[in-house]
Amino acid sequence: MSNITVSRLSQKVIGPAEPTPGGELRLSWLDRYPTQRALIESLHVFKEGHEPAKVIGGALGKALVYYYPLAGRLVESDGDDDDGELRVACTGEGVWFTEASASCSLKDVDFLEHPLMISKDELLPHPNPTLDPSHENKLILLAQVTEFTCGGFVVGFRFCHAVADGPGAAQFMAAVGEIARGATRPSVEPAWARDAIPDPINVRRGPLPEPSKSKLQYLAMDISLDYINRFKNQFLEQTGQRCSAFEVLVAKAWQSRTRAVNFRPESEIHLCFAMNARPLLHQTLPPNGGFYGNCYYIMRVSATCRRILHSSVLEIVKLIKEGKKRLPAEFARWAKGEVIGDPYQITSDYGTLLVSDWTRLGFAEVDYGWGPPVHVVPLTNLDYIATCILVKPSAQKPGARLITQCVAAEHLTPFHDGMINLEY
Fold first, then answer.
1. Across the beta sheet with 73-76, what order do the strands follow?
2. Phi and psi for 157 in degrees, rounded to 5?
3. Residues forming beta bridges with residue 160, ordered by sequence position
4. pLDDT tens digits, residue range 39-52?
5. Distances in whole angstroms, Cα of residue 30 to Cα of each of 88, 164, 277, 340
């Protein structure tokens, strides 16, 4: 497919469509966590549209009236008491917006199923000429709309994690969609409310993950409903309790990875996953659900390699559910500064698997006027941190899609074989 080209037709900065407040806004403790400075990248594939760049670009400017901090820039305060903490300067400068066209149909590139037939960097917004890093690092949001010859289009986002977590980013995209469909304002009123997030004393942030020489391999697997329901029904029969597709597939992935890598039996291995902490802060967060900043907690489930090796998938599901139950107590201890260590620290240790669930964030429901996306493609830039992401599959494939980058090349085949084996 080397003859496929993506042409960037225009690029501009879209500011709020009306005057917005100025000044600086403080970010929360969690917003300012060092790893949050990264731009989270994703592709959102839509089967049809009509002048999508024009429609989305216009709606973007109107949505920024309500989400005006996203049109600002990241700055470091220079006050003596703030120690150069990260803030948002509400300058109204706008978000970087690129319009592009591809020389093929979405069908020609298999609707961007893996492996990508077009480089992700062709579909993501990158200012040209390249901005000085000191300027690009201040940007909060960049978007690109690429139209294909079939009328379908792809929206590529680069969204700064310091200003919004997954549900927050999806909330903003949904607001753009509502306005694109004719609404005069978002149905959910956005709220900054960063003071509602705990600012624990005496909690030291852990170091950034150290790059390693390991190059972890990308693997995407579509999991059928029959596969998922088999384990869910077995769990219900054995325990009288229900479990989720996320719990089943994460348990299966942790087990398969442990068996494929063959860690020392007595070594301790870890499963880490982010949990939405908004329900725990319902008394301090605005009641309308419009908070879009970072509000999650990373739960850690640990076990010896031997235990995971010899446990069934259902027993591992129990471990995960027990870990989830600890959330209120652990979050409360963290908020009071009573935890030992840093629960938010991300590590490149091969014994740690970081998992996340994208199926409930809201990306799959965003509609700019022609229906929700065919599928959403999360992108990762660090191939030395073991990750596993659950996303909704493309519309034609009911079930779930598991996107993993969690094993080295020599462990990829046994990991895959373990995932498809239903007998464990």
1. 24-26, 86-89, 73-76
2. -115, 140
3. 39
4. 999 999 999 999 99
5. 14, 10, 12, 17
Q: Which pTM value belongs to this model? A: 0.93
Q: Identify the residue whose tokens are 């799959």.
A: 364
Do the domains at 6-196 and 217-420 have one common CATH topology? yes
Helix axes 166-180, 52-66, angle to 10 degrees: 120
Catalytic residue, chosen from 31, 44, 161, 375, is: 161
Render pLDDT for 82-112 as a digit per residue (tens, 0 to 9): 567 999 999 999 999 999 999 999 999 999 9
H-type helices in 89-224, by residue range? 120-123, 133-136, 166-180
State yes or no: is 161 an active-site residue: yes
Tell me which CATH homologous superfamily contains domain 217-420: Chloramphenicol acetyltransferase-like domain (3.30.559.10)
Q: Which fold has domain 6-196?
A: Chloramphenicol Acetyltransferase (3.30.559)
Whether residue 121 lies in the annotated active site: no
> Of 108, 349, 367, 383, which residue is the catalytic one?
367
Rounded distance between C-alpha atoms, residue 177 and residue 120, angstroms = 23
